[in-house]
Design a protein that fits this description.
By secondary structure, this protein is an alpha+beta fold. It has two domains: 5-178 and 297-377, Zn peptidases (Aminopeptidase, 3-Layer(aba) Sandwich); 182-295, Alpha-Beta Plaits. The chain has nine helices and 19 strands.
């Protein structure tokens, strides 16, 4: 049975799976994959639906990973069409999730259906890891599935993640790694008092400003061959004070660091905690710091499969993709713990935006790319 990438993408978009709601998207995929002979296992954690589907029992196991959850639509009135209608206009498939990343899931399954028709007795296995928890904190999605697969010693030999890696044109970028991400939540405690008598108080607003200046001016590194320089950004400063003549008792700030593989989250914590401790000691105040680590920096060393994929993309798109580590985090940060992985999908220029869309012609090319990858990977 052949599956149309356009038709399946439309069906997926029509599932309003705004994270963490599934809205039938996972069951739709399971039904399609069962029709192709896949054994489907639902791996649900709390309110999150996840799917691990596998065709075959032998090695090697080639895995495709993706997510069906999408971000909210934003201002509905600004959309040119219903964001969950999956309409095609002027070679554009429009809808929330078209780019990120229901379109690429549809392309891979369409490629699968074609591959299975021409190679019904291929040697090895093909699997799909699909989650409904990627767009938020991602703790009950791919992370938990990988932990379960690891526990039962499920072997994945290579994984392709279908994130929209290309900026403006299909074929531009393959991701072979990602920077890590750590968020810090800092509170500085001072002594409340009257602004006319500052010597009787200790202003935490002034102290937290000193701290933020220090960490903001820290040069973490100059980047590496494969990574851009690490950067720290202050994203929130909050002083809960309803009066203009009162020195507050505390001040809070939130910052995020995107770091390359010259650092780990632990090494950054040590560096930052030293700044907080020294500054607060000098200013006779106390502080509290907590961190949330979204992922460590990682790099998948390019191998023959990486270069095979790069060659196929260039052949079909006429563009040689750059092997990159730019951008935010993705579920590859979890998958890389059990398998080498690369990321390649559609164009992400409109992802998360009003009138999110992908070109129908790009979807046809991506299906062809995915089909060629499967044919080459299982060429023996």
């Amino acid at each position: 049975m052949l599956i149309s990438e356009i038709k399946l993408a439309k069906e997926l978009i029509r599932c309003p799976s705004v994270t963490p709601i599934d809205a039938g998207a996972i069951n739709l995929l399971a039904k399609k994959l069962r029709s192709l002979g896949f054994k489907c296992q639902m791996m649900n954690f709390k309110n999150i639906k996840n799917l691990y589907a596998r065709l075959g029992k032998s090695s090697p196991n080639f895995c495709f990973a993706g997510h069906t959850d999408v971000v909210p639509v934003g201002d509905l009135k600004s959309w040119s069409t219903n964001p969950f209608s999956g309409v095609v206009k002027n070679n554009k498939l429009i809808g929330r999730g078209a780019s990120d990343m229901k379109g690429s899931i549809a392309c891979f399954i369409a490629a699968l259906s074609q591959f299975k028709k021409v190679r019904p007795k291929f040697k090895g296995s093909i699997s799909l890891l699909i989650t409904g928890d990627e767009e938020t904190i991602a703790i009950n999605g791919t992370k938990k599935v990988i932990e379960k697969l690891k526990k039962r010693k499920e072997k994945i030999n290579f994984c392709l993640v279908g994130e929209p890696t290309n900026l403006t044109k299909l074929g531009q970028i393959m991701k072979i790694g990602r920077r890590g991400s750590i968020t810090g939540y800092l509170t500085v405690y001072g002594t409340q008092g009257h602004v006319a008598y500052p010597y009787q108080a200790n202003n935490p607003a002034s102290i937290i400003t000193k701290i933020l200046n220090q960490i903001n001016n820290m040069k973490l590194d100059n980047g590496t061959k494969n990574f851009q320089p690490s950067n720290l950004e202050v994203v929130k400063i909050n002083i809960e004070n309803t009066a203009d003549n009162v020195i507050p008792a505390k001040a809070t700030a939130t910052f995020n660091i995107r770091f390359n593989n010259k650092h780990s989250s632990n090494s950054l914590k040590k560096k930052l905690n030293k700044v907080f401790s020294n500054t607060c000691r000098r200013n006779r105040c106390s502080f509290k710091i907590s961190y949330m680590v979204s992922g460590e920096a990682f790099l998948t060393t390019p191998n023959k499969t990486t270069y095979m994929i790069q060659k196929i993309i260039k052949k079909i798109t006429k563009v040689k993709p750059k092997l990159s580590t730019t951008g935010g985090t993705s579920d590859a940060r979890f998958i890389r713990k059990i398998s080498p992985c690369v990321e390649f999908g559609l164009v992400g220029k409109t992802a998360h935006k009003v009138d999110e869309m992908v070109l129908v012609s790009d979807m046809k090319k991506l299906k062809k790319i995915y089909l060629n990858i499967l044919q080459n990977y299982f060429s023996c």
